[in-house]
Design brief:
Layout: H1 5-21, H2 26-47, H3 61-73, H4 79-99, H5 104-111, H6 128-136, H7 143-158, H8 162-166, E1 173-175, E2 182-187, E3 193-197, H9 200-211, H10 232-246, H11 251-254, H12 260-273, H13 278-285, H14 290-293, H15 295-299, H16 301-311, H17 325-333
Antiparallel strand pairs: 1-2, 2-3
Length: 334
């Protein structure tokens, strides 16, 4: 293999394989791109091999395993992030097997590098009081505060993913003239669209917010302080700021790791406790499998407590009996 062939294969993988043939989402492209950036820098720093001189050997199992250790020990990544990086490298290995079958032995060993067992953490979610406190921290006499309040309302109302939130455009918003019927179109994972209705209060605030801004049809709904597109890191940064502002008055907020996904958990749990069936929740959140949604049932400690109360304490004396001969005869006859 020529020294520059691996660079050519990486370009073909992104442009022809992922984008043209598999039609993967822009978010997947960005995630895989970031993985390759990290991987190439790791190989150059730890193995003295710059990208221009790399070959397929640098994508063998030993190099990949070393990269995973680097992500864990040096970058402090959790198992979920490490597994996402490994998934990108596995995908590239499968592509290389298709393009360069003569290296299938080396690449099949790379595919045998196992995913890590992800640690199962208790998910955080917000109480009504905590959400109210976060809203109150938004100073609506400023453009930033008004934007932050809209961000919170959409996260809480819809359970939208952060990547979906920052991708919302004006054309995705549908509100009638009285703000009585409103919904948003969400561009989800795998280029799948779903429609989620809005509460009247959310729709009214959203309509007012849009009237105060000069939008073009293709404008993003949420922008940053210099009128650029709001980013995922920008959303997380503002949530961190709001959490710090409210933790003194609502101490429970200080103990939680509040991320955009916290609102998604909160939306799902609130729907579950309101009696919404789990299939509807899965559709609302854009889950491909109901198994993904089922985790919210496990997280709902209040529901578990209520279930236990409905069952009542067992009366053990009711089970301490000896069947008589007629019952035994009956069972024998079955």
């Amino acid at each position: 293999m020529k020294n520059n062939e691996i660079q050519m294969q990486i370009q073909k993988y992104f442009l022809q394989w992922l984008i043209a043939q598999r039609n993967v989402s822009p978010e997947t492209i960005k995630s895989y791109r970031d993985t390759f950036r990290l991987y190439l820098r790791y190989i150059e720093k730890h193995h003295g091999m710059p990208p221009a001189k790399m070959s397929i050997v640098q994508f063998d199992a030993d190099h990949i395993l070393g990269f995973l250790v680097h992500l864990d020990k040096e970058r402090g990544n959790n198992s979920k992030t490490i597994n996402n990086r490994l998934a990108a490298l596995h995908s590239f290995a499968k592509y290389l097997i298709f393009e360069l079958p003569e290296y299938s032995g080396l690449l099949n060993r790379s595919l045998m590098v196992p995913f890590r067992k992800a640690e199962k953490r208790q998910m955080d979610f917000l109480t009504e009081a905590e959400f109210t406190a976060l809203k109150s921290a938004c100073k609506t006499d400023t453009a930033l505060g008004r934007r932050d309040l809209l961000m919170l309302l959409l996260l809480y109302n819809t359970g939208i993913r952060v990547s979906e939130l920052v991708g919302l455009k004006l054309s995705d918003i549908h509100i009638d003239s009285q703000s009585t019927a409103a919904y948003i179109r969400i561009h989800g994972k795998g280029r799948k669209e779903r429609y989620v209705p809005l509460w009247k209060s959310t729709a009214k605030y959203l309509a007012s917010y849009m009237n105060d801004h000069a939008y073009s049809e293709n404008s993003n709904l949420l922008t940053n302080c210099i009128d650029g597109n709001l980013t995922r890191s920008g959303v997380r940064y503002r949530l961190d700021c709001l959490q710090k502002m409210t933790s003194a008055t609502v101490p429970s907020l200080a103990k939680k790791n509040i991320t955009p996904h916290t609102f998604r958990h909160t939306t799902a749990l609130r729907m579950l406790q309101s009696g919404v069936d789990i299939s509807t929740i899965a559709i609302w959140l854009g889950h491909e499998s109901i198994i993904t949604t089922h985790k919210y049932m496990e997280a709902d400690l209040e529901m578990k407590r209520q279930t236990l109360e409905k069952m009542g304490d067992p009366d053990h004396s009711a089970y301490n009996f000896t069947p008589d001969a007629s019952v035994m005869a009956f069972l024998d006859s079955l």
